[in-house]
Amino acid sequence: NAGVMQNPRHLVRRRGQEARLRCSPMKGHSHVYWYRQLPEEGLKFMVYLQKENIIDESGMPKERFSAEFPKEGPSILRIQQVVRGDSAAYFCASSPMEGREETQYFGPGTRLLVL
Amino acid sequence: AQTVTQSQPEMSVQEAETVTLSCTYDTSESDYYLFWYKQPPSRQMILVIRQEAYKQQNATENRFSVNFQKAAKSFSLKISDSQLGDAAMYFCAFSYNNNDMRFGAGTRLTVKP
Description:
The structure holds two protein chains of two kinds.
Chain A (H helix, E strand, L loop, with lengths): L4 E3 L2 E4 L5 E6 L4 E9 L5 E8 L2 E4 L8 E4 L6 E5 L8 E9 L8 E2 L3 E5 L1
Parallel strand pairs in A: 2-11
Antiparallel strand pairs in A: 1-3, 3-8, 4-5, 4-9, 5-6, 7-8, 9-10, 9-11
Chain B lengths: L2 E3 L4 E5 L4 E3 L2 E3 L6 E7 L6 E7 L7 E2 L2 E6 L4 E6 L8 E8 L6 E2 L3 E6 L1
Protein backbone atom coordinates (compact mmCIF):
# COMPACT_ATOMS: atom_id res chain seq x y z
CA ASN A 1 0.00 0.00 0.00
CA ALA A 2 1.75 3.08 -1.24
CA GLY A 3 1.86 6.00 1.12
CA VAL A 4 0.98 9.57 0.36
CA MET A 5 2.77 10.63 -2.77
CA GLN A 6 3.83 14.12 -3.67
CA ASN A 7 5.46 15.39 -6.79
CA PRO A 8 7.65 16.95 -7.68
CA ARG A 9 9.93 16.49 -4.71
CA HIS A 10 11.85 19.60 -5.63
CA LEU A 11 10.63 22.53 -7.66
CA VAL A 12 12.54 25.61 -8.70
CA ARG A 13 10.71 28.62 -10.02
CA ARG A 14 11.63 32.20 -10.87
CA ARG A 15 9.69 35.06 -9.39
CA GLY A 16 6.40 35.56 -11.22
CA GLN A 17 6.08 31.99 -12.45
CA GLU A 18 3.45 29.50 -11.36
CA ALA A 19 4.07 26.51 -9.11
CA ARG A 20 1.87 23.42 -9.15
CA LEU A 21 2.28 20.88 -6.39
CA ARG A 22 0.58 17.51 -6.59
CA CYS A 23 -0.54 15.14 -3.88
CA SER A 24 -1.94 11.65 -4.25
CA PRO A 25 -3.46 10.46 -0.98
CA MET A 26 -3.15 6.99 0.38
CA LYS A 27 -5.50 4.45 -1.15
CA GLY A 28 -8.89 4.72 0.46
CA HIS A 29 -8.26 8.20 1.85
CA SER A 30 -10.54 10.99 0.72
CA HIS A 31 -9.37 13.77 3.03
CA VAL A 32 -6.37 15.83 2.03
CA TYR A 33 -4.53 18.53 3.94
CA TRP A 34 -1.80 20.88 2.86
CA TYR A 35 0.81 22.32 5.18
CA ARG A 36 3.68 24.70 4.68
CA GLN A 37 6.93 24.51 6.55
CA LEU A 38 9.21 27.49 6.49
CA PRO A 39 12.86 26.88 7.37
CA GLU A 40 13.34 26.03 11.04
CA GLU A 41 9.62 26.31 11.76
CA GLY A 42 6.82 23.85 12.40
CA LEU A 43 4.21 22.95 9.89
CA LYS A 44 1.45 25.45 9.35
CA PHE A 45 -1.96 24.33 8.21
CA MET A 46 -3.09 25.76 4.89
CA VAL A 47 -6.16 23.99 3.59
CA TYR A 48 -8.32 20.92 4.11
CA LEU A 49 -10.13 19.33 1.19
CA GLN A 50 -12.38 16.43 0.49
CA LYS A 51 -13.19 15.24 -2.99
CA GLU A 52 -14.44 18.22 -4.99
CA ASN A 53 -14.87 20.34 -1.86
CA ILE A 54 -12.79 22.79 0.09
CA ILE A 55 -13.68 22.27 3.72
CA ASP A 56 -11.37 24.70 5.48
CA GLU A 57 -9.00 27.14 3.82
CA SER A 58 -8.42 29.34 6.83
CA GLY A 59 -4.66 28.94 6.60
CA MET A 60 -4.40 29.77 2.95
CA PRO A 61 -3.09 33.16 1.87
CA LYS A 62 -5.92 35.12 0.31
CA GLU A 63 -4.11 35.83 -2.94
CA ARG A 64 -2.12 33.74 -5.39
CA PHE A 65 -2.78 30.43 -3.63
CA SER A 66 -5.47 27.95 -4.56
CA ALA A 67 -6.11 24.26 -4.00
CA GLU A 68 -8.32 21.65 -5.50
CA PHE A 69 -9.06 17.98 -5.05
CA PRO A 70 -10.98 16.79 -8.10
CA LYS A 71 -13.11 13.70 -8.32
CA GLU A 72 -10.39 12.03 -10.30
CA GLY A 73 -6.69 12.62 -9.92
CA PRO A 74 -4.45 14.14 -7.32
CA SER A 75 -4.96 17.19 -5.19
CA ILE A 76 -3.24 20.27 -6.57
CA LEU A 77 -1.82 23.21 -4.66
CA ARG A 78 -1.29 26.07 -7.06
CA ILE A 79 0.76 29.15 -6.39
CA GLN A 80 0.56 31.90 -8.96
CA GLN A 81 3.18 34.61 -9.47
CA VAL A 82 5.52 33.11 -6.92
CA VAL A 83 7.68 35.33 -4.73
CA ARG A 84 10.80 34.47 -2.77
CA GLY A 85 8.81 34.24 0.44
CA ASP A 86 6.96 31.25 -1.01
CA SER A 87 10.14 29.20 -0.76
CA ALA A 88 9.31 26.45 1.71
CA ALA A 89 8.53 22.77 2.05
CA TYR A 90 4.91 21.96 1.29
CA PHE A 91 3.54 18.83 2.86
CA CYS A 92 0.40 16.99 1.98
CA ALA A 93 -1.33 14.63 4.37
CA SER A 94 -4.31 12.35 3.98
CA SER A 95 -6.73 10.56 6.25
CA PRO A 96 -9.53 8.11 5.59
CA MET A 97 -13.16 9.02 5.36
CA GLU A 98 -14.74 6.58 7.72
CA GLY A 99 -14.80 6.87 11.44
CA ARG A 100 -12.89 9.26 13.63
CA GLU A 101 -9.50 8.26 12.53
CA GLU A 102 -7.55 11.33 13.42
CA THR A 103 -4.16 10.30 12.20
CA GLN A 104 -2.94 12.12 9.17
CA TYR A 105 -0.34 10.42 7.06
CA PHE A 106 2.16 12.75 5.53
CA GLY A 107 3.79 12.70 2.15
CA PRO A 108 7.49 13.39 1.70
CA GLY A 109 6.91 17.01 0.83
CA THR A 110 7.73 19.26 -2.08
CA ARG A 111 10.57 21.71 -1.64
CA LEU A 112 9.85 24.88 -3.52
CA LEU A 113 12.67 27.26 -4.21
CA VAL A 114 11.90 30.62 -5.74
CA LEU A 115 14.85 32.34 -7.32
CA ALA B 1 -7.84 28.10 20.01
CA GLN B 2 -5.67 25.04 20.29
CA THR B 3 -1.97 25.66 20.69
CA VAL B 4 0.96 23.33 21.07
CA THR B 5 4.16 24.35 22.81
CA GLN B 6 7.51 22.62 22.68
CA SER B 7 9.75 24.53 25.03
CA GLN B 8 13.00 22.77 24.07
CA PRO B 9 14.30 23.93 20.70
CA GLU B 10 17.24 21.54 20.98
CA MET B 11 18.09 18.45 23.01
CA SER B 12 20.99 16.07 22.97
CA VAL B 13 21.45 12.57 24.32
CA GLN B 14 24.25 10.07 24.51
CA GLU B 15 23.78 6.94 22.48
CA ALA B 16 22.02 4.20 24.50
CA GLU B 17 20.77 6.72 27.06
CA THR B 18 17.22 7.94 27.62
CA VAL B 19 15.86 11.35 26.68
CA THR B 20 12.51 13.02 27.27
CA LEU B 21 11.04 15.64 24.97
CA SER B 22 8.43 17.98 26.41
CA CYS B 23 5.16 19.12 24.93
CA THR B 24 2.27 21.07 26.38
CA TYR B 25 -0.93 22.06 24.71
CA ASP B 26 -3.94 24.20 25.33
CA THR B 27 -7.48 23.19 24.54
CA SER B 28 -10.94 23.34 25.98
CA GLU B 29 -11.89 20.05 24.36
CA SER B 30 -12.02 16.77 26.25
CA ASP B 31 -11.74 14.33 23.37
CA TYR B 32 -8.78 14.76 21.08
CA TYR B 33 -5.64 13.11 19.77
CA LEU B 34 -1.99 13.79 20.34
CA PHE B 35 0.93 12.75 18.20
CA TRP B 36 4.66 12.79 18.00
CA TYR B 37 6.16 13.05 14.53
CA LYS B 38 9.78 12.59 13.62
CA GLN B 39 11.32 14.57 10.79
CA PRO B 40 14.82 13.38 9.81
CA PRO B 41 17.02 15.44 7.48
CA SER B 42 15.07 14.07 4.54
CA ARG B 43 12.16 16.26 5.81
CA GLN B 44 9.73 13.37 5.57
CA MET B 45 7.26 13.40 8.46
CA ILE B 46 7.10 10.04 10.22
CA LEU B 47 4.47 9.19 12.81
CA VAL B 48 6.20 7.99 15.97
CA ILE B 49 3.37 7.55 18.42
CA ARG B 50 -0.28 8.46 18.89
CA GLN B 51 -2.40 8.94 22.00
CA GLU B 52 -6.16 9.21 22.32
CA ALA B 53 -7.11 11.62 25.08
CA TYR B 54 -9.86 9.36 26.40
CA LYS B 55 -7.36 6.60 27.11
CA GLN B 56 -5.61 6.82 30.44
CA GLN B 57 -2.95 4.31 29.53
CA ASN B 58 0.18 5.83 28.06
CA ALA B 59 0.95 4.75 24.52
CA THR B 60 4.17 2.87 23.80
CA GLU B 61 5.90 1.86 20.58
CA ASN B 62 9.05 -0.15 21.16
CA ARG B 63 11.65 2.29 22.51
CA PHE B 64 9.22 5.22 22.38
CA SER B 65 6.70 5.95 25.11
CA VAL B 66 4.69 8.92 26.23
CA ASN B 67 3.78 10.43 29.56
CA PHE B 68 0.31 11.79 29.02
CA GLN B 69 -0.95 14.04 31.81
CA LYS B 70 -4.39 15.18 30.69
CA ALA B 71 -5.10 17.49 33.61
CA ALA B 72 -1.77 19.20 33.16
CA LYS B 73 -2.15 19.16 29.35
CA SER B 74 1.26 17.64 29.02
CA PHE B 75 2.41 15.05 26.50
CA SER B 76 6.09 14.20 26.74
CA LEU B 77 7.96 11.68 24.61
CA LYS B 78 10.55 9.36 26.13
CA ILE B 79 13.09 7.70 23.91
CA SER B 80 14.91 4.82 25.57
CA ASP B 81 18.18 3.29 24.43
CA SER B 82 18.73 6.17 22.01
CA GLN B 83 20.21 5.30 18.65
CA LEU B 84 22.05 7.41 16.11
CA GLY B 85 19.09 7.03 13.77
CA ASP B 86 16.87 8.79 16.29
CA ALA B 87 18.54 12.09 15.48
CA ALA B 88 15.88 14.30 13.91
CA MET B 89 13.38 17.06 14.50
CA TYR B 90 10.50 15.92 16.67
CA PHE B 91 7.14 17.58 16.40
CA CYS B 92 4.33 17.29 18.90
CA ALA B 93 0.90 17.67 17.35
CA PHE B 94 -2.71 17.99 18.42
CA SER B 95 -5.85 17.13 16.49
CA TYR B 96 -9.44 17.66 17.59
CA ASN B 97 -11.87 17.49 14.74
CA ASN B 98 -9.62 16.24 11.96
CA ASN B 99 -9.96 19.49 10.12
CA ASP B 100 -6.35 20.24 10.73
CA MET B 101 -3.48 19.41 12.95
CA ARG B 102 -1.68 21.86 15.17
CA PHE B 103 2.03 21.35 15.45
CA GLY B 104 4.54 22.58 17.93
CA ALA B 105 7.65 24.35 16.71
CA GLY B 106 9.72 21.21 17.05
CA THR B 107 12.68 19.95 19.09
CA ARG B 108 15.90 19.10 17.35
CA LEU B 109 17.38 15.96 18.88
CA THR B 110 21.07 15.21 18.54
CA VAL B 111 22.40 11.77 19.43
CA LYS B 112 26.05 11.66 20.43
CA PRO B 113 28.00 8.47 19.75
